[in-house]
Amino acid sequence: MRKMLLYALSGVAVSILADTSFKSWMPFTWWGEYDSVVYQGHNPDGGIDFVSNAIVRRPVERSWKDILFCDQYDGRGYRYFSHYPSGSVKVEGSKALRSSVWTYQAKVPSRGDCYLRSEITYTVRTNLFVQLKFEKTEVYEGKPFSL
After folding, report:
1. Structure confidence at residue 83 (pLDDT)
2. What are the CB-based long-range contacts (under 8 Å, 24+) for 36-41?
3. How far is Cα 14 from Cα 3, in angstroms, rounded to an integer?
4. 9 phi and psi, to 5 degrees?
5. Are 139 and 115 spatial neighbours (Cβ–Cβ below 8 Å)?
6. Which of the 8 DSSP states describes residue 22?
7. Percent helix / strand / coil, the chain, rounded to 5
8. Separation of alpha carbons 59 and 91, rounded Å
9. For the purposes of burial, counting CB atoms within 10 Å of the CB of 120, is it exposed (0-12), middle (13-18) or buried (19 or more)?
10. Phi/psi at 89 (5° precision)
C-alpha cells in the first residue's frame, strides 16, 4: 500500500515537472507575440496615445513596462526620459491579432524626438499541488516620433 502511494505521488511529481519544463522551454512566440507599438499623437489630456497589436495564444498573466527615450535637441542624443509601469492582466488565449489604443501616462517632454520601449512579460503559473511560476519577457522598441 505504501509503495503504491509512493508510486502515485512520484507519477504526479514527474507529470508536474514535465509540464512545467515543457512550458518554460517554449519560446515567447509560443505564448504570444507583441507585434507593434505605433505613436498616434497627443490626446486632449496632454498624454500621448499609442496603438499596440498583439496576439496572446495561451492563458497568461501579461504585464508590461513602457519606457520613453527622447532626444531633446540638447546635443546629448536619445536618453531615458520617463517610464510607465502598468500593472498586469490575466489574458485568455486567442488566435486573433488584437489592436488596442492606450495612453502613456507618465511624464512627456514638450518637444523632442522620442521612441518607446515596451517590455512585455508573460507569467504562467501551475497550481496542481505546488505553485510553480515562470516568466517570458520580450522587449520591443517602437519607431521614433516627433513631439
Report:
1. 94
2. 36/140, 36/142, 37/116, 37/118, 37/140, 37/142, 38/142, 38/143, 39/116, 39/142, 39/143, 39/145, 40/101
3. 16
4. -65, -40
5. no
6. H
7. 20, 55, 25
8. 6
9. buried
10. -135, 150
Number of Cβ within 10 Å of residue 27's Cβ equals 8
- Whose cell is 515537472? That residue is 17
- For residue 108, which amino acid is it? V
Residue with the three cell numbers 527615450: 69
pLDDT in tens, the chain (147 residues): 666 655 555 555 555 555 555 666 566 677 677 777 889 988 888 789 999 888 877 777 888 899 999 999 898 999 999 998 777 777 777 776 788 888 998 999 988 999 999 988 888 776 666 666 777 788 889 999 999
Q: How many whole angstroms separate alpha carbon 28 and alpha carbon 25?
A: 9
In the prediction, which pLDDT does 49 show?
Answer: 93
| Contact by Cβ (8 Å): 50, 102 | yes
Copy the grid coordinates of residue 94.
Answer: 486567442
